[in-house]
Amino acid sequence: MTTKPHEPLARMSSGQTSKSTYTQGHSASVVASHTSRTVDNSASFLLPHLKPHYKIVDLGCGPGTITRGFCSFVPQGSVTGIDSADSVIEQARSQAPQTEYPNLNFRVGDITQRLPCDDNSVDVVYTHMTLLHVPSPVQVVEEARRVLKPGGMLAMREADHAEWEPSTPALDKYNNLLFEAARSTGAQGAGAGRRLHVWALQAGFERSKMSIGGGATVYTAPDESKWWADVHVGRLEGEVGKMWLENKLVDSQKDVDDMKAALRTWKESDNAWYGGLQGEVICWK
Which residues form the Methyltransferase domain (predicted)? Predict the structure, then answer.
């Protein structure tokens, strides 16, 4: 992938603020859940379509666990991960030394702006759990379409909705607020997975050149549920809880404490079960 001087990547120094509307922050607990994502559990719908020479761009790549997983599928090609957060890009780079991943690079940038790619220059654009946080997802999809080669693929995987069992009012409130926080910025939040093909149509892709499906993420007792609950307790104890209080999505610290208590109770249940549905769409240009 080449970057020309007249097509700059929107970069940020450590002291600058991204235009990103990501509402979950980048605390250790948030990044922990992101690092559990791999090409096998998050991009299996795309893998059969990859060819060794492909150039892949991963939008909103986070700590890069999925991104670097693509490398072995395109040994004669290249993989580029883009994310708006300096800290997670630094982490991604630290976990992917060039000696081990010579065809991989990471860049800091705002994917809601012009991508650092020539027209018709990329074989695959991939994005995962990113568009639901973006107020103008069609704009991102349009930009992905611009950089794709004729016949290139845009692969999108986005959350749609989630369920926790056994549930309680406090746990239901937490579940709803995860998506409400995104909606408060003008983003889609819940229901993004079922709208991917609609956004693609609005961006100029043809319905006859789409594959529309879905996947699911499930965590059950005893070990998976404990890990998953601890991840979310950590969010409430960190940036997420703070942002919800500051933005008045919750009334008081007691609301936050009640949700943490509900998560801790849930993780100890022998019947603990979490299921999240994702939409999975591939569009060919």
Answer: 51-166
Asked if residues 153 and 284 have their Cβ atoms less than 8 Å apart, the reply is: yes
> How far lies 212's CA from each of 85, 280, 283, in Å?
30, 6, 9
Sorted by sequence, the CB contacts under 8 Å of residue 227 that are 6+ apart come out as 219
User: For the whole prediction, is pTM greater than 0.85?
Assistant: yes
* Start-to-end CA span in the chain (Å): 18
Which domains, ranges and CATH numbers included, belong to the chain? 28-284 (3.40.50.150)
The C-alpha atoms of residue 188 and residue 198 are separated, in whole angstroms, by: 13
Look at residue 142 and give its three-state secondary structure. helix
CB-based contacts of 182: which residues, under 8 Å, 6+ apart?
21, 23, 132, 133, 188, 189
Task: State both tokens at 239.
Answer: 């940036």
